[in-house]
Amino acid sequence: MQRIVDNALAVTKESVKTLTYESLNNFARCINGFSALLLTLLPGKSNVLEGLHGWELRPTLRGPRLPRWMHNGVSSFNHFIHELSVDSDTSSLDYSSGEDDSDGISTPPSPLSQSSLRSWASLPANYESHWTEWITFIVWWVLLPARILLWLPLYLLRLLGRRNSRMSPMSPGRYQHSSRPYFSKAIPGKEHDVPNRTTDKRRGVIEDLQLGIEIFIETIFDFFHKAAHLLLSPSETFGIVLSWFSSSSHSQSSKGNYGDISDDEIVPTAILGYNDSSPTERRTTTSLYNTDTRTCQDVITEFGYPYEAIRVVTSDGYGLLLERIPRRDARKAVYLQHGVMDSSMGWVSNGVVGSPAFAAYDQGYDVFLGNFRGLVSRDHVNKNLSSKDFWRYSINEHATEDIPAMIEKIHEIKTSELKLYQPTMEEVVNEEQPYKLCVVSHSLGGAAVLMYVITRKIEEKPHRLSRLVLLSPAGFHDDSNMCFTLMEYTFLLLGPVLSRIVPAFYIPTKFFRMLLNKLARDFHNYPAVGGLVQTLMSYVVGGDSSNWVGVMGLPHYNMNDMPGISFRVAQHLAQIKHSGKFKMFDYGSSSANMEVYGSPEPLDLGEFYGLIDVPVDLVAGKKDKVIRPSMVRKHYRVMRDSGVDVSYNEFEYAHLDFTFSHREELLAYVMSRLLLVEPTPTQTNHKKGMKLKKKMETGKPHL
């Protein structure tokens, strides 16, 4: 009777799990299909989705499919049926594969394989035909006796092995040997870029719902299974009730009995990933919620490159993270600065082959990755600083506080290290900078770098830079679309009120940041939904075809931290767009501007472009709708008219393609511009002088 009840509960449980699983999947498919229909109605989607790989957005008209558990799927309902043929399948795998290769026909993978799960929607049409199903059915029944004969002895041997393992004590050595196959799981290759790898490492919202529902069903049926077991076993139920009312002496005696077991016989248990060398609260939370919170450090060290983290404190107390791929004896360095709502992750997000940071390091550069203020974690020396005070900064502070602090730290590090590696250079360090520092910046980072160079020249302070490579730099924005114009007037008219309500723009809580991280996975699983979100986001930014959905899946937008944008930075951009000039922040009154700038109006940086005394390379994207090529050409015209050594180039890129896409031609161009700067030749000249001095000293006795 107990066996009948167990079988009935097992079948019912598996049926309920299959029903809920397929219902949720069908609901997700309906949303994906509805999104595909909406995509057919939206204008301009072909340009927006042109550069995205792996997005199958056109709905295909196919006949209805049976649920996977009724046809060729891998639901838990028919899992036990498939186990009957697993062993025989492995023994006949080589024969069947050789036969299929000779015919030129590839058979579908095993229903338990991951490739079957991923390619369910893309099976060839000949496998769905009526005749193929009948032929497969007949062959399966013909081979059934042979499969059973092969399976029976293997099953007996396995059963005998299980009994022997239960009879024999489990020593630590046996435990370690049995656990080796579990830990020998293949690690994915490192050649993939960060967005793809992060997508593969986490579950989406739909997958979390499926897992939660399955756990809930397991819990409910486990309760009914135990209840039925107690009802059908009165003696065991009576014993459990008696144990509740047993005396404390009985419990102590039972403890003594357990104490007789030696420690060697206790099998240690552990959860993979909880015994790391550096267990932190952040890592534990990540493992619980299955989100990716890898940092730039994790990516760099994972690819085998050296890494160094440097904390920089600005003069107004903000803590910045200056990251480094160190090459300490190099006399040429490059400083990479990100744009708005970005971090240093953008420079390493395309893996070893397609990332500017790794390319520069491989060319012999000492690589520094800057991070602006504005992380949600709010690093400041004053721990009691309010949120409004923390976010009270504009692009001015990026240029006059953040960049100077990081570049001065780079100068301090490089000069001290070069003295250690090249002691003979000590006399020359005070006369000339012993290294050359180039800058590669993107978007807002480009505007901040230009503002930094000009303000340092006005203050008559060294900027320590040798060349500027500016990728789609901000600064001029009068040529933009209607959405940016609407945001411009919103910030200008409602700025005094909104600044008190919304000091910055970011996702405020860990839950919603985790939700965004998981939705990025769902957008990958359901391409029409992802394409719809991609198209709508591109409409907001003027039709720019950057992979906005893919960037959302990067780990710098995670549940623990993310870059934000202050209200004043957005207001500053609105002021620049409204004036049509590259100006510093307008504090709203003549007296406030007079106190900061010494004039009633903020400085027009375009008028001071003549102070730029280093070569500048401007790069624009023909498909960039955020900062259009006409605005980058405006930088070029003003610099050229001011006598700056400037060059201009265009590529078929959108705005985010400069950092988040694998673009070999862009990397080749950037590296070619950096290589135009020759390292400081003081070391060679000084070595020649030392050799000449030695020759003269050795030659004196002969004179």
What does this structure look like?
By secondary structure, the protein is α/β, with parallel strands linked by helices. The protein has 31 helices and 10 strands. The strands form 2 sheets. An 8-stranded mixed sheet has the order 1-2-4-3-5-6-9-10, sandwiched between helices. The protein has a two-stranded antiparallel sheet with strand order 7-8. Helix 23 crosses helix 24. The longest helix is centred in the N-terminal third of the chain and has 40 residues, at 2-41. The termini are far apart. Mean pLDDT is 74; it is low at 53-131, 163-200, 257-287 and 683-703.
How far is the N terminus from the C terminus? 116 Å
Mean pLDDT: 74
Give me the number of helical elements. 31
Give the class from helix and strand content and strand pairing.
Answer: alpha/beta
**Spans with pLDDT under 50 lasting ≥5 residues?**
53-131, 163-200, 257-287, 683-703
The radius of gyration is 33 Å
Shape assignment = elongated
What does the main sheet amount to? 8 strands, mixed
Strand arrangement within the widest β-sheet reads: 1-2-4-3-5-6-9-10
The total beta strand count reads: 10
Give the % helix.
40-55%
Q: Approximately what portion of the residues adopt beta-strand conformation?
A: 5-15%
